[in-house]
Amino acid sequence: MADPGAPGYRNFAQFYSVAAVAERAYNPRVDQLDIKAPPLRRLYGDWDQRRSGREFPARADFDPVDLKYILGDLTLVDVLHDPLRFRFRLHASNLADRGGIDMTGRLLDEMPDARRRNNALRHYMKVLDTRRPSVIFLRNEYTDQRSWHCEVMVLPLAADGTTIDMLMAAFAWENAE
C-alpha cells in the first residue's frame, strides 16, 4: 500500500480517501468527533471529561472498572520514542479473536498481516501528527475469511498531560454478510 507521505498525497485525509477508507474528520468547532457507535461516543466522553483542563488525560486517569462496557474492544499502545515505535500493552481480546493473533506485549512491527499493520501505523501516526483523536471506518477480512466493518477510534494519552506516551484504541464491530 502507498505511503501517505509519498508524492501525490497532500495529507492523510486525501490518502485515506484514495485508499477507500472513509475517515470521519475531527470538528474543532464542536470539539468532538463524528462518532457513530454508542460505545465509542461514551469512551470519547469519558476521555474528554478526564482531560480536566489538560490537553490529554493520562492512562492513570482511567479505572478499568469504569471501562467495562468497552474492555473487550479496547487496546492500549505504548508510544516509544527514539526511535518511534508502538508496543501493545493490551490488545483487545475481541480483536485478537477476530484477527487470530494476540499482540499484547509485542511491537506493531511484529504484526504479521501487513495490511492491518499499515492501517494501524497510519492511524497512530495521524493521531501523533495532529495531536487529536481520530475515528476511521475500516472493512477488514480476517483469517477465517469472514468480513467485518469496524469503526476505530484512537485517543491520545499523556502522563504529563502534554507528551503523548500512549494511545487508547477502541473498536466497534458490525458483522457483514
Structure commentary:
- The protein has a single domain, classed as Beta-Lactamase.
- The protein contains 4 helices and 8 strands.
- 25% of the residues lie in helices and 28% in strands.
- With 177 residues, the chain is an alpha+beta fold.
- The strands form 2 sheets. It has a 6-stranded antiparallel beta sheet with strand order 1-6-7-8-4-5, sandwiched between helices.
- A hairpin with a 5-residue loop joins strand 6 and strand 7 (147-157).
- It starts with 11 loop residues before the first helix and ends with a strand.
The count of domains is 1
Strand percentage lies at: 25-35%
Could you tell me the CATH topology label: Beta-Lactamase
User: How many DSSP-defined strands?
Assistant: 8
Counted by DSSP, the helix tally is 4
Assigned CATH architecture: 2-Layer Sandwich
Average pLDDT score: 79
What structural category arises from helix and sheet content? alpha+beta
Low-pLDDT runs of 5+ residues are 1-31
